[in-house]
Amino acid sequence: MNSRRVESPAAEVHDGTVTTDSAQGPPPGKRRGRRPAGQDTRTALVEAARTVFGESGYEGATVRTIAARAGVDAAMVNHWFGGKEGLFAEAVLELPFEPSEVLKILLDGSIDELGERIVRTFLTRWDMTGGGLFQALIRSITAHEQAGQVLRDFFLNQLFQRIVDSAGVENTDLRATLCASQLMGLGMTRYVAKFEPLASADVETLVKAVAPTIQRYINGDIG
Amino acid sequence: MNSRRVESPAAEVHDGTVTTDSAQGPPPGKRRGRRPAGQDTRTALVEAARTVFGESGYEGATVRTIAARAGVDAAMVNHWFGGKEGLFAEAVLELPFEPSEVLKILLDGSIDELGERIVRTFLTRWDMTGGGLFQALIRSITAHEQAGQVLRDFFLNQLFQRIVDSAGVENTDLRATLCASQLMGLGMTRYVAKFEPLASADVETLVKAVAPTIQRYINGDIG
DNA sequence: GTCTATACAACGATAGAC
DNA sequence: GTCTATCGTTGTATAGAC
């Protein structure tokens, strides 16, 4: 794989007058220069990326395709996200796990069934994406330290810290990371390394097997 | 599609230092042809590869660098290992976890303490490599399907299948993959994503927390 | 002599510099 | 865009073991 140099211009608020490629076209083509105000290029790219990455996986998706679907120039991906990987990280993390929505599902019910609900929710959502997104996510983490930071904030601060907090136990930090470790391992084994029979097992089979682990990490005896 | 321009216009096959054994005194450059017996090119490559892969990861390490450190030509990597991938598999998988040695350690003792011994052994060995090799391993399996196959054979067939078999339970295949899932997740969280406080936790703290999970996957109730 | 481990040259691809 | 350095890999001539 490539070690793309990522300058990470990242979250620049003001657009920096990047010229769009002059479209092939005669009339209906895009104009050069800054787009009219109110068009949220960044959001459009993220939404297009979710669709295209989900359809084609990380490898299959091309920056050009995503940009075309978003109706902007491919150079915008570099400008806003520092490259394909950065766009991916943002698109993938927020797509299947919109935090407030997931939290609502997970925290609605008995604490003693939290493990079950967590494993079922994660596996179901990951399965829906076909696993390609998970694999690309892992790759993104190993390739760029920055992606690890994004994942860390999301996984821990937005999800597991709050989940574990709701259980009213001590050592919440360690418990949260232990939960993350088992779930990441589950994803690695099922979608990336593809160890059988786990990779093809029913969701409910895995829920039965793994939920007690998560439950113990949340509010059981860990030391 | 450019044919790279060679600098020296004289494209003589024979030139320079190679020709003379007798006349010219200094034979500092490597001579062509078979080296004197007793020089273990293969082992030298594996050792160099461990160092370089650990420092630079799979992508960052180059075959040429590894070969140079080993004091041999880069083509030897192909000759002995079939390519970069093969060298990586041998260097990363078989050296720190020489299966028979690890199996001996793990299977020596009570079955009810297997979880403890497994977690302690893996963490200790991974910690010794500084985590660089683990990161390189993960990177490798996300990049190349073939590396996943190597990992699968090693982890399951050589290690966990036998371990679980020794416990005399059913569902050994699923149990083995469950064990692998927690250990891979532990490595991901500690060495790649670096979630704190798990990433900096004492080995024994993690042994206490995670060993019961592994133990349950080996011979507990999983469904 | 045969066989093979070895080093050198070169290729196509690609990423970065200019 | 063009050029260049470098990557992994392959082809091949040769030196040394047998």
Write a structural description.
The structure is a homodimer of 223-residue chains. In chain A, helix 1 crosses helix 7 (132-143), helix 5 packs parallel to helix 8 (145-167) and helix 9 (172-192) packs antiparallel against helix 10 (203-219). Chain A has 223 residues and is mostly helical. Chain A contains 10 helices and no strands. The radius of gyration of chain A is 20 Å and the shape is globular. The longest helix of chain A has 23 residues, at 145-167. Residues 1-30 of chain A have low confidence and may be disordered. Chain A has 2 domains: 1-11 and 26-95, Homeodomain-like (Arc Repressor Mutant, subunit A, Orthogonal Bundle); 97-219, Tetracycline Repressor, domain 2 (Orthogonal Bundle), CATH 1.10.357.10. The termini of chain A are far apart. The first copy, chain A, has helices at residues 41-60, 63-70, 75-81, 84-94, 99-107, 114-128, 132-143, 145-167, 172-192, 203-219. At the A-B interface, helix 7, helix 8, helix 9 and helix 10 of A face helix 1, helix 7, helix 8, helix 9 and helix 10 of B. Chain B binds a DNA duplex (18 and 18 nucleotides) through helix 3.
